[in-house]
Amino acid sequence: MQLKVCNTPKEGSWRIAARDQAGCDPPTQREGAMVTPENNPAVRRVQLGLLLRELREQHDVKPKTIADRLDWYPGKLTRVEKGELTVAAAEMDVLIDHFGITDEDEANKLRQLASDARKRDRPSRVPDWAKTYAALEAAAAEVKAYKVDLVPGIMQTEAYARAILSTSLVTPLPEIYERAAERARRGETIVRNSNREISVVLGEGVLYCEVGGRDTLREQLRHIRELTELRHVTVQVLPYTKGEHAALGTPFTVLHLADPVATYTYLEGLTDADYLDRPNHTNVYVQAFDRLRVAALDDRESARMLEQRASELE
Q: What are residue 80's phi and psi, to 5 degrees?
């Protein structure tokens, strides 16, 4: 049997709680390194969960059957399939046997995947609930983000991030400076990696919401303008004059992963965040983003608008 990951989960969404305002503050990565499934346990957990869910669905195995055989508490399988929990070596052997995987190479791939998923995450100041999103974002082959009035976390300057974090109800005051610096460093690593396509649509409000004051906003807009010079980065501005559109009032991020092959939509609120992973959900957001790109100003017009607004802030 050949194992292939496809985006066909039956669970509609999964939720994390107590997020930092304007996005997670994920682990700091070695400068210039892209997080891959090979070096990030959180991504390996997601990959393993997708594979196990696909195997279970292919064999029409009920969750209760797996839970009973492994003596798992109710709900543990769901958490494993979502990448929240790991699987012990002995449990992996039981699952391989239960799914009838007789090809030793394929069985060993699953065992190795489970072993990698059990490794400890890199030390960071990030709460556990944020690590999965951070890993998915850093491992994504393509990032698509629509923001109404706030710069995406991966494009924020340190001063801009510091201003945002200073208003957070969940970030301790002594950690604001360190987290802001970490966010800016990580953003540079992610955005400047040419192996990852990044497309961003900014509502015009982003250019006028004076986060941190005029100087901070001016520096931020010029930073974004600089990033638009990168061949793999596209930034478009959606003017107020465009009026109504499919995503009005709904900022979101779409993450496309190549390994495992999957698409996630990330929606965040003040106290929690949702990941949508069913195609009938994610496809809607992908289509909405495509329409936003058509409605927004093109690359050159957007760059001019960014520069013009920055100049007004002098």
A: -65, -45
